[in-house]
Design goal:
binds NADP nicotinamide-adenine-dinucleotide phosphate; 9-stranded mixed β-sheet; 8 helices; two-stranded antiparallel sheet; Dihydrofolate Reductase, subunit A; alpha/beta
């Protein structure tokens, strides 16, 4: 596995076929291509960067394109900071698409679909802007996802599966389809088991063994920061934790997230797989209130939480 992402870029275009929502603003596709240039540090005719304010748009653009640019600007700014010498500090964004009553899937694990088509495009954009897309073993076992950027133009991130105890069977699509490099992240004590399940000829998949990823007794949760550090040694500094609820909650509780996108859909699941589970507080005054902003994504409402603001 190379230390930086070498996968072929997605050839998707924002045309009618890949824009099922039909209301992507006219000026967005061109701006998105410029943002992909900015992602890679290439000069852009439409965007400029200053160390103080980060990336900004020089052209006159519509309100909607401007709001979308603002949504993704923190990722571009983080990458620009990481490009400076000796400033490779990892930066992590996570998302959860949830119901009004706080679930990311039904009790049977069905999550197709909690959110609408706008949100799918949003997920693929986040993937394209990041070095790696990270999911929990439960999501791989339940959804068998591809985790590609097939809905938008942009590079494929490395796919990362968090499975400290190597409970997966190694047969899921991410380990076998070769669409992008894949890392199966396990505690070192379980790495041999994972490797044996991949077999002798893995397709673009590799086990990343992390020392003491699990607690001392081997079972008490895991340490997301150790995974983040291990991924940084592979050149993966900008991470997108896509789900599910348990994995995002673990990263959140460990203080490993810089930003969290909660996309609330107007649906009631009743009971199901929990979304964000934060630390409980006895009094309201102790409950964190991060800086937030909202953006409508079709019928869904995206809450963009700046977790470094308080
Ligand atoms: N709406 C959204 O935004 C969204 C996004 C992603 C996924 N999802 C849905 O979320 C659900 C999965 O999320 P989650 O919070 O339950 O888990 P998750 O965060 O994806 O993965 C972590 C959990 O999976 C368990 N796990 C490990 N190996 C497993 C296996 N082979 N089979 C089943 N579970 C295993 C882990 O147990 P240990 O801790 O014991 O290892 C841990 O509890 C799915 O229904 C998926 O469709 C929704």
């Amino acid at each position: 596995m190379p230390s930086t992402v070498q996968s072929p870029p997605s050839t998707a275009t924002l045309d009618a076929a890949t824009d099922p929502v039909g209301d992507v603003p006219r000026d967005w596709p061109g701006l998105w291509l410029q943002m992909l240039r900015a992602r890679d540090g290439a000069p852009s005719p439409q965007l400029s960067h200053s160390p103080e304010f980060g990336w900004s748009v020089d052209d006159v653009i519509g309100v909607r394109a401007s709001a979308l640019f603002d949504l993704y600007k923190p990722l571009l700014d983080a990458r620009a900071r990481q490009r400076r010498p000796r400033e490779h500090t990892p930066w992590v964004v996570a998302q959860l698409g949830q119901s009004l009553d706080g679930f990311v899937a039904t009790l049977t694990g069905d999550s197709y679909y909690v959110n609408g088509a706008h949100c799918l495009l949003h997920l693929h954009r986040l993937r394209a802007l990041c070095d790696a897309v990270v999911v929990g073993a439960g999501t791989v076992a339940t959804d068998n996802p591809q985790l590609t950027t097939r809905r938008v133009p942009g590079p494929q991130p490395v796919r990362v599966v968090m499975d400290p105890e190597a409970r997966l069977d190694g047969l899921s699509r991410v380990f076998r389809d070769g669409q992008a490099p894949t890392l199966w992240v396990c505690d070192s004590r379980h790495a041999a088991q994972a490797r044996s399940r991949l077999g002798p000829v893995p397709v673009h998949a590799e086990v990343l063994a992390v020392d003491d990823l699990l607690g001392k007794d081997g079972t008490a949760g895991y340490h997301p920061q150790r995974a983040v550090s291990a991924l940084a040694t592979r050149g993966l500094h900008l991470l997108f934790v896509e789900g599910g609820g348990i994995t995002v909650s673990r990263f959140f509780t460990a203080g490993a997230l810089d930003r969290l996108h909660l996309v609330v859909a107007p649906v009631l699941i009743g009971n199901g797989r929990r979304g964000l589970q934060a630390t409980a507080h006895a009094v309201m005054a102790d409950c964190p209130r991060p800086k937030v902003r909202t953006l409508a994504l079709g019928p869904d409402m995206l809450w963009d939480l700046d977790l470094r603001s308080s």
